[in-house]
Amino acid sequence: MISDRVKKSLKRELNHSLMAKIGIVLVLAIMLMAMFAPFFAMHNPTQQQLDRAHQPPLGVTQTSEEFRFVDGERQIQEVTIQGTAEHPFGTDSLGRDLFSRVLFGARTSLMVGLFGTLFAVGTGVSIGLVAGYYGGRVDDSLMRFADIMLAFPALVLAIALVGLLGPLTVRIPDPFVAAGLVEGMPATFVFPITLTIVVGVVNWVWFARIARGEALSIRQEEYVKAARSVGASDWTILRQHILPNSLTPIIVLATIQVAAIILLESSLSFLGFSGTTLSWGFDIAQGRDYLGTSWWISSIPGLAIMFAVIGINLLGDWLRDALDPGLSGEGGV
Amino acid sequence: MSQARFLIRRSLQGLLVVWGVITLVFLLRFITPGSPVDFVAPLDASPELRAQIAINLGLHQPIYVQYFDYLFGLVRGDMGFSYIRGRPASGIILSRLPATIELAVAATIVAIIFSIPLGVLSATRRHEPTDYAATTFSLVGISTPNFWLGIMLILIVSVGLGILPTSRRPIGLIPALEMLIFQLQISGIRTWIAHMILPAVTLGTYFTAMIVRLTRSGMLDELGQPYVKAARAKGLPETLVTYKHALRNTMIPIITVLGLQLGSLIGGAVITEFVFNWPGLGTLVIDAIVVRDWPIIQGALIVIGIGFVVINIAVDALYTKLNPRVSYE
Amino acid sequence: MSVHTGEKPLLRVEGLKTRFFTEEGQVNAVDGIDLSINDSEVFGIVGESGSGKSVTALSVLGLIESPGRITDGHVWYRSPELVESIGADEPSAVDGEYVDLQALSPRVRRTLRGTHFSMIFQDPMSSFNPSLTVGEQIAEAVESQQRARANPRSVASRTQGYGLSSFIMSTVMPSKRYVKEESLDRAIELLEMVGIPDPVLRAEEYPHEFSGGMLQRAMIAQALAGEPNVLIADEPTTALDVTIQAQVLDLLLELQEETGMTILLITHNLGVVARMCDRLGVMYAGEIVERGTLHDVFNDPVHPYTQGLLGSIPDLDGTRDRLQPIAGNVPSLLDHEMPDRCFFADRCPKAMQECLEKPPEFGIAESSSHATKCYLARTSYDETDALTEDYFSSETAETQQIESDGGTQ
Ligand code: SF4
Fold first, then answer.
1. Confidence of residue A30 (pLDDT cuts 50, 70, 90)
2. Which of B160, C51, C175, C200 is the most exposed place for a label (fewest CB within 10 A)?
3. Closest residue in chain A to residue B15, using alpha carbons only
4. How far is the CA of A299 from the CAs of A112, A190, A286, B127, C91, in angstroms?
5. pTM of the entire structure?
6. Which atom of ligand 1 has the smallest separation from the CA of C348?
7. Contact indicator for C128, C219 with CB cutoff of 8 Å
8. What domains can you pick out in chain B, each with its CATH number?
9. Which stretches are transmembrane (chain A) (predicted)?
10. Does B288 lie at the interface with A, CB-CB under 8 angstroms?
């Protein structure tokens, strides 16, 4: 499916683009993190240890004032806590290990990003292809519908849908725990279904537009007419001629959409609409109340989001520059 | 086709979209699990009381009757009564609108002021430190979740440095201006600005970063065009070549993209409002969703949809004005 | 058309080298060319595409952009007026009446564009900004040249009232525009001068509303805005309909006679050369391989490449206007692929052993009016010296052989 020419141009672009290399490394790192989270984590991310709450990250010393009652008298005491390697990213207000939470949070983000995008690509491409290929009234009504969808800002629509439909989740057993390879880790992983479908639903229009445009232009090509004249079915023509041609822009857009959906997911989790509590956005929301004392609770998960999204965006730039020079917008000689 | 007719047609199309938006928003209530009554009625309400509440809310009618009631209500500017506050939804929504518009406009201004010069510099000084700084900034900017950025700004600027307030803003732009004009009091506007800076930066950053990217790549494209070489050959100074020729043509496609991306501005505004406890539509919607205050949810979503459609028509108008080749189709 | 003096040319290009530093390697687009162009003459540069003739034109104007750079050579321009105005600031660039454009600072050089040198391009449609009216674009040229003349040294004065803020203001307030009313009037005069009917109306139109021929006239008008001494015309008629080509060429000749400017005409079309030029240079692989008067070169071509171009019978009537295809490929200009021999040898029907040893130079003994970079200029052709016909094909075969041997070892 991937031709040699494509491979070559991917390689060439990779060779002289430091940014592409950084992107690949970041994305791979985060994927590994997400996949093998139970192995890297040192604590169960959901386990509360109230006596260890608000521990600062490794290398940070935190001084705070604490009220104590000594002999019925209220006293103010200075307490100094030092970050330890036990909790390299510190702990949250309930004493949960942030490092483990960041690792497991990657799972939520990546899963929602990937499946949400797949959902958007699936629906968008099929609708777009049908609209562009058949044209006429089918096209008109589908594209009007797309216009209406576009009239809602994706995030607003997603907030409304997820907030109203309610957070439906499934618990997927963790294969490593089930196989007995690790202990003390959560046995299941909470996958937010409503959220995934909604982020897909609010993003399908872009794919529909691309697929429709390609289908419209290719429909007129001689070889498609020829295929039709020899009796190829619509389905065959769509699959064999039109789909492969629209693949490049779809892949490029899908990559960038994964990043957008991760941002969307974190926003919804931040609002508390996602149904899972093991998510970067959720942790940022948790930390908001403790900005004055424990800055790391909000800061660190945010950095995780940022690096993940930067990585995916760089990957998208690389694919775009390599696969579709027309899109890159770099000035010629 | 003339420009006026093009705009009229575009507006009619917009009206159609708005109608679709209204219908969709209306239907939203029927795909939502649970009845609105659950949220309004006391937990121990008797079935009779529940039925009475349903009648009060107009929920006993068939869907189509409710739909047309709602539609005709909208035409008269009536969005029903808030379930929770018992006041007309339209009034509540309208009172929240200025804060959101002020925020969005401020963020757009921030974005335009910083992004276009940065994008141009980045393109004209390609492969120089300025360019690397600008591309790095724009990459980070489009990759940072804005709610987190807002929190970090609060952490650093308000908590850390102790400047700029984070409390809910006490005064809107219009009262602040009234104070300035009628009482010659500058404090109102000062307070307004102090409360505006962080939210505007939070919301504007993503936009700034995106326009920097678009401007840079667009400028690189335009600067490679033959007409740029010709402009240089006829002796035009470089500033003129850059700004009057290349930038102008760069802006034409950027404007269309911006029109589409305004959605992310509005979406971002909702979240930014939530972070800064901003008294705008965004916080209103989120609060209403949590308690299922349907008239407010529907009204606010419709207002946002209409706003977006209107902005897009305005963008189209600007586009046709800037681009002489457009054929008004 | 004047009789050239030969002693004090207006423009003397010496050893000009322009290179592009691309990913594939260094491209020697212009590889050390020498030219002298006289006052009020039409000088043609002919060659196939990819021979470096357009790059030569851009190099003279100083419009080479990254990754290209002029690495060597001088462009001497005779202008006592210029010597006077800048001599004090840039003494190193001045030699008698001549100024070395290459030695000037980019700022000063920029001020010469439009006023001393001007250029028209191949494709008028892409050489005008599509979103500004034609009148405005010509008026811009007028305006910037007036500012340049009023204050030749200050770049600031020329850009005054223009920058980002003015750009934004100018979209809102018409009074903030760079172009003044008088410049627009002058633009209309210029349009009239190049024979555009209804110039007042047409000035208000956008490039896409013009036909190709009319737009090329408009470009000529734009180039004349600053009354330049030298007009460089890069393939001025290639993009036009055949029927209009002649009109545009006639217009150029007319204007040349009226104003007495010098025209440097870049073309691949021998018919155009025959019609327009007083003298010409033939370009091949980044070098001028033959130069002389039109008469000399057409009647008595020495270089086998020129001979090939002209076909067996040179013909001044222009009936044979297309370049005759010459067997073989246009040479690669990549530095590491350029052989250390006559670049034409692999396509030359008369190549000799000598040609492979060292690249030929312009003969000293030749008259200055007709010179050739070819060994045949001093030895007459003797068929027995010629290499066998399949010399180059066997050469490549041999190298391939060696390479594959090396691979198996
Ligand atoms: S120098 Fe030799 S190879 Fe080159 S053109 Fe002259 S005869 Fe041909």
1. very high
2. C175
3. A148
4. 22, 23, 11, 32, 61
5. 0.82
6. 8
7. yes
8. 97-322 (1.10.3720.10)
9. 20-41, 110-136, 148-169, 189-207, 247-273, 293-315
10. no
